[in-house]
Each structure stands twice: as structure tokens, then as C-alpha cells.
Write a structure and sequence with these properties.
heterodimer, A: mainly alpha, Ferritin, 2 domains, two-stranded antiparallel sheet, about 55% helix, B: mainly alpha, two-stranded parallel sheet
Chain lengths: ~280, ~240
């Protein structure tokens, strides 16, 4: 197979192919990379992959939109932890305080990282909104009015933010598929949020209170929030899914996988619209 | 008697005899073929000889494209599931009820992941891998949890690196659904070992980003625990 001929043929059909692939030389190099170690019979597959990269390229504005959406969520989390750490008598000294210092450090770093990335891609980072962590839409008298004075409530809101953050990043991964670098970074943040979520859930499992329902585990069982407030339920709805890619996970291949285990084994995404609806009461 | 002759010949083979020749003779021995049959076979066509004397086995080939990446994930999930199945079959000394509950749950999740990939891949799935856990002391809490931590952090870094190698958004989403659960496992295990170490500086860098590894980097680390040779040379690299 003559790769030059293949490119020539494509050029006849699509004169803009080189723009899409950043030039003929880049196209050839890309093809050579794809097919370098592949058997000749697999070259058509490699071509298919190359074309997908060329023709399903999301405009960079879509990527910037995702990054600014993520930045908004990171602003929310960072300020929530900065304020929590600053509220005297809220977070107990010792393990709890050290944990939230670690989490705050990461969220603040994410803000800095996202701003730098957006600028590097030629975009304009959104500015930090004004937040109302009582979920009062600016009244500062919402259902979580005691969030910075009642540690048990603070933990419940923290868990909700972290679990929601995991779902939010997951829901945007597909929109970043055309940029390896941005997708990679987003996944690297995504798993950090999941570690945070697991730890906050662990703290709550060790500290029974009026806000804790049942026994929180580091992972999400069915659509249980383990939080005594219906206000957080939208962050957990949909997590009970047990069919993945058309495959029923409950009792799969004869193994004793209950619906609880099946739901825990896979975290579910949220759309941007679902996430914005969830955080709306917190943003003035 | 014929078999004895072949056996004697096998035993009498000089050291420098190519190993594949040994294999062929051993094959005849094990197969219980008569010397006459052996003679007949050795005088058959090249194609037939190839059949009886295959090239040295190169292990499993993960394949290329998205299938290759899914098989890569399937291989890692096989490793994790095998490990936790052994852990829960006989818990380490002093395991608390909470630790047993967590390990049992993680085991179920890893089995769910493994079987999901097996079914999703269908006839494209690699076979069952042979594992080697001889370096792990399953009676020791430190050994078991230390290995679990290494596997979970490795799994997170593997999925974080695999996402960009996928072409299909649907597969990317599925990988995303799994990686955050692996990260929850990693945090839980790390908290069991040292409470508060859920996202230590050894895995999260100054920018607040988790570890990312390429398939060759991951497989080099996992190699110690996998006997089956894995050919990852056809996996996508970008």
C-alpha cells in the first residue's frame, strides 16, 4: 500500500485535508506512526483512526467551554475548603484538619492549573463567582445555613461536592477526546476528586451524626447519598445503574455480584446541565 | 518399547541441541506416538511440521486500536481480581470486620470489571492470564494492603493514561466510570494503611494531578505478577 497515493486520493475528495491534519508532512508522519508496527492488513484501521482524529476534531472553543465549566466547579470547591479551614472551631484539629488541608491544597492547585491551561489555549478564564454555601442563591440563609458552624453538615456538603465533581468531570471526558493533553489532565484531576470523595465518606463513616444515614462506604451504593437531606439527592440519582455498555453486571457470568456491588463498581456521569442545576443554589 | 526409545533419545540429546527440537521430541513422547509415527511425521511437509512444531509461544497479543486498550484493561482487571480473590479466600491475621468488608467489596468490584470486559470484548478477549503472587505474604496485613495499594494506584495511573488512546467516546466513558472507582479503592486502602494518606504526595503532584502511565510503563510494573507473556506492541501510542 502506497501511503502517498492514499493521501493523494483523500486530497481529491477533501482539499482541506492538510488543514485538518496540520499539513501533508504531518499527515504522513501521523500515518507512519499509526502503521509503523502494524501488519499491512491493519493499515485501513489505522487510516480510520487518523480520519477520526482529523474530521471529528472538536473546535477548541468546545474544549475551552469544558475547561471554564471545570474551573467554575474548582472555584466552588476551593473556596468551600478555604472558608471551612478559616472558620474557627469548625474542623477539628488533627486528622480531620490535615485531611481538609490536603484537599484544599489540591482544589486551589486545580484552579491555578485550569486558569493556566485556558490561557495557554488562547482562552479567557471565567472569573470566580460569588458563592452562597448555604445553598440560598445569595440569601445566605439557605437549607445549609449552618454549613460553616456545624461540622457534620459541612462534611455532608463536602461529600456532595466531591461526588458531584467526579461525576461532572466524567461527563465531560467525551468532549475532550480530540485533545490528548487536555483529556489526560482532566482525567488526572477526576481521579483526585474521587480520592477526596472516598476520604470524606470515610470521615463520615467514623463520625455518626444526625446528618449521616446508614454507613457511608468509600464508594457509592445504588443512589444512596448517606445524607439526611433530600436536597443532595440529584447528585446521586442515576448512580444505581447496573447495566454497562449493554452488559448486565448483576450476577454477571454466574458470579455473586449483587445490584449493590454492581452499582458501586461503576461511577456514573452527570451532564453539564445536571451539574449546573445542582450547583445553582450555591452560585449567586 | 517404542516410547522408551524416543525417551532415551530425548534424554541423550546433547546440550547444544536447539530447544525447539527437544520440544518436538518431548511432544512425541507426551503424545504417546510410536516411533514409526514419529518417523512419518518428521518426514512430512513443511506446513505439517510447522503445525507440530509451532514457533515459541509469544503469549497473548492484546491487539490494536480500541480493542487493544480494552484488552489491556481486561488484563489489569484480571490481575486485580485474582489478587483480591486470594485475599478474601483467607484473610490476613488480625483483619478487622471493617477491613474484611472493604476487601470483599473491592473484590466484587474487580470481578465485575473483569467480567464486564470479558463480555464486552466477546471473541476479541484475550484468554485467562496466569498470575504469580509468590512475592506476596497473604498472611501479612502489611504485605496484602501494601500490594493492594500498589495495584490500585497502578490501576488509576493506567486508566488515566489509557483514556487518550481510545477513539470511541463510549469506551472512554466506560473507562471513566471504572477509574474513579479504582481511585476510591486506592484512597480506601491507603487510609487503612495510614489514615489520611488517601491522596499522598507520592501520587498527587504540585498541580494537584494524579499519576498517569503509558501501557508499557504499567505492564513493566505488573510484569512481576503476570506469568503469561503479554504482547502490547500493537497498542495505539497516541
Amino acid at each position: 500500500m502506497n501511503l502517498h497515493n492514499v493521501i493523494d486520493q483523500i486530497e481529491k475528495v477533501d482539499p482541506e485535508v492538510y488543514d485538518r491534519l496540520n499539513g501533508r508532512r504531518a499527515a504522513m508522519k501521523s500515518l507512519a506512526n499509526f502503521s509503523g508496527k502494524l501488519a499491512l492488513t491493519t493499515v485501513p484501521l489505522a487510516l480510520g483512526s487518523l480520519f477520526k482524529k482529523a474530521y471529528s476534531q472538536a473546535p477548541s472553543s468546545a474544549i475551552l467551554d469544558v475547561l471554564n465549566f471545570a474551573l467554575t466547579l474548582e472555584y466552588l470547591e476551593a473556596e468551600f475548603y478555604n472558608k471551612g479551614l478559616a472558620a474557627s472551631g469548625l474542623i477539628p484539629a488533627g486528622d480531620d484538619r490535615m485531611a481538609f488541608e490536603v484537599i484544599a491544597k489540591h482544589e486551589n492547585a486545580h484552579v491555578v492549573f485550569l486558569i493556566a491551561t485556558i490561557k495557554a489555549l488562547g482562552g479567557t478564564p471565567v472569573s470566580k463567582p460569588t458563592f452562597d454555601f448555604t445553598a440560598g442563591n445569595g440569601s445566605n440563609a439557605g437549607p445549609f445555613a449552618a454549613v460553616f458552624t456545624n461540622y457534620d453538615l459541612y462534611l455532608a456538603v463536602s461529600q456532595t461536592f466531591e461526588d458531584t465533581g467526579v461525576r461532572a468531570y466524567k461527563g465531560q471526558a467525551g468532549n475532550l477526546i480530540s485533545s490528548n493533553e487536555v483529556l489526560r489532565a482532566a482525567l488526572q484531576i477526576h481521579s483526585v476528586e474521587a480520592r477526596h470523595a472516598a476520604h470524606v465518606r470515610e470521615i463520615r463513616s467514623r463520625k455518626p451524626s444526625a446528618f449521616v444515614v446508614g454507613m457511608p462506604l468509600p464508594w457509592i451504593t445504588l443512589n444512596n447519598s448517606n445524607i439526611a437531606s433530600p436536597a443532595v439527592q440529584p447528585s446521586y440519582n442515576g448512580e444505581e445503574l447496573t447495566i454497562q455498555g449493554g452488559v448486565q453486571i448483576v450476577g454477571i457470568n454466574g458470579f455473586e455480584i449483587t445490584k449493590e456491588y454492581a452499582s458501586e463498581a461503576f461511577d456514573e456521569p452527570l451532564t453539564k446541565e445536571q451539574v449546573l442545576a445542582i450547583v445553582d443554589p450555591f452560585i449567586v | 518399547m517404542s516410547e522408551k526409545i524416543i525417551s532415551d533419545q530425548t534424554l541423550a540429546l546433547p546440550q547444544e541441541m536447539p530447544s525447539k527440537e527437544v520440544s518436538r521430541r518431548k511432544f512425541f513422547t507426551y503424545a504417546g506416538l510410536s516411533a514409526a509415527t514419529a518417523m512419518a511425521v518428521t518426514s512430512c511437509t513443511k506446513e505439517q511440521r510447522e503445525y507440530f512444531n509451532p514457533r515459541p509461544k509469544e503469549g497473548v497479543d492484546l491487539g490494536s486500536g480500541d480493542i487493544g486498550i480494552l484488552n489491556y484493561a481486561y488484563a489489569l482487571e484480571q490481575l486485580e481480581a485474582a489478587f483480591y480473590l486470594k485475599v478474601v479466600s483467607s484473610y490476613y491475621e488480625g483483619a478487622t470486620e471493617k477491613e474484611k468488608k472493604y476487601l470483599k467489596g473491592i473484590c466484587a468490584h474487580e470481578i465485575a470489571h473483569r467480567e464486564f470486559f470479558k463480555n464486552a470484548l466477546g471473541d476479541k478477549a484475550i484468554g485467562a492470564l496466569e498470575v504469580d503472587f509468590s512475592s506476596i505474604d497473604f498472611k501479612s496485613r502489611a504485605s496484602v494492603l501494601g500490594t493492594a495499594k500498589a495495584f490500585e494506584d497502578l490501576g488509576v495511573s493506567a486508566y488515566n493514561g489509557a483514556g487518550e488512546l481510545l477513539q470511541s467516546g463510549a469506551y472512554l466513558l466506560l473507562a471513566g466510570k471504572i477509574v474513579s472507582v479504582e481511585a476510591r479503592h486506592a484512597a480506601a486502602i491507603r487510609d487503612l494503611i495510614q489514615y489520611g494518606d488517601f491522596a499522598g504526595n507520592d501520587v498527587i503532584n504540585a498541580m494537584g494531578l494524579d499519576v498517569v502511565r503509558t501501557p508499557p510503563q504499567v505492564l513493566a510494573i505488573a510484569d512481576k505478577y503476570i506469568v503469561t507473556k503479554i504482547n502490547a506492541s500493537n497498542l495505539p501510542t497516541s
